[in-house]
Amino acid sequence: MEQGQVSDAVARAIHEEEEGSHPYWIERYCWLYLSERFRQSLEFKSMVEFG
What we know:
The chain has 51 residues and is an all-alpha fold. It has two helices and no strands. This is Mobile element protein.
């Protein structure tokens, strides 16, 4: 992370991983997804909804 944000290169690498290519593939993908949503919620002063 750089200044509280995931770099584009790291995000792209995680996003492009093939399913099962890493022992924690799904955890890494979920972390990327959720961290970006939480970052956006702070940036736009909105909320994250789980549903």
